[in-house]
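Re: that backbone. Tokens:
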């Protein structure tokens, strides 16, 4: 029979130990109890860097994100490069897209950073709409751009990515780098596998995205790694009005 928690016998003499839902046996038995470790003020502070504690941080990020965005009206997430210079054609397109989405009745969600993200937030703010920025903790500090009205900073990419999809009815993707591609292909995968439904994805900039679309068609689909129908999961355009019309139509607005 197992010794009860708090047994006076040394850990090495105990064959079984139950720590909440966790069962430990033989050489995996730990000395002391959970309460004892909690109340021990002289204990090792490394516990704040352990995986169980990270779970609590992850949970808190989900709670904060859900709480802040739960009452957000219909929204579109806009992605694009943080390196897009202010005043460039891509930046100005972002401003026009942000404003047009607001005019169509959407809130605008971005990654909250500079460049194309700032442009879309700026357009939303200038259109008197709701401008949301979901930032991320990075080694190089960016901070939220000044056009964000509701801002949340996340530690974990996967929590942030959940918010982009959960509280948006579609994506508009401006020219961007690896982070933009990450968000794009995550969304495409979710739609392809039917984890989300009625989720329009619009790539803005035919010249920029043309090479990627050709590769998907000629190589990925051409070699049987995806189906021809997967190319219908997204649209490509250079027209702001068409981009907004596509997300509006597919979301049923």
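Recovered sequence:
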């Amino acid at each position: 029979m197992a010794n009860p928690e708090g047994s006076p016998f040394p850990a090495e003499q105990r064959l079984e130990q139950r720590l909440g839902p966790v069962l430990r046996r033989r050489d995996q038995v730990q000395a002391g109890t959970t309460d004892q470790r909690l109340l021990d003020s002289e204990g090792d502070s490394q516990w704040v860097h352990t995986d169980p504690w990270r779970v609590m941080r992850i949970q808190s990020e989900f709670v904060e994100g859900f709480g802040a965005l739960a009452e957000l009206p219909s929204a579109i997430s806009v992605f694009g490069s943080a390196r897009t210079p202010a005043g460039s054609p891509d930046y100005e397109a972002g401003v026009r897209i942000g404003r047009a989405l607001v005019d169509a009745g959407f809130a605008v969600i971005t990654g909250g950073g500079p460049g194309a993200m700032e442009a879309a937030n700026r357009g939303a703010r200038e259109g008197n709409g709701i401008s949301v920025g979901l930032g991320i903790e990075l080694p190089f500090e960016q901070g939220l751009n000044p056009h964000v009205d509701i801002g949340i900073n996340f530690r974990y990419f996967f929590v942030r990515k959940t918010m982009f999809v959960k509280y948006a009815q579609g994506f508009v993707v401006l020219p961007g780098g690896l982070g933009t591609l990450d968000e794009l292909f995550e969304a495409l995968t979710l739609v392809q596998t039917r984890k989300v439904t009625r989720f329009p994805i619009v790539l803005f900039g035919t010249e920029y995205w043309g090479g990627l679309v050709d590769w998907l068609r000629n190589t990925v689909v051409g070699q049987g790694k995806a189906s021809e129908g997967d190319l219908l999961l997204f649209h490509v355009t250079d027209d702001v009005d068409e981009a907004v019309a596509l997300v509006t139509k597919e979301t049923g607005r």
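Confidence is low (pLDDT under 50) at residues 1-9. The two ends are 65 Å apart (CA to CA).
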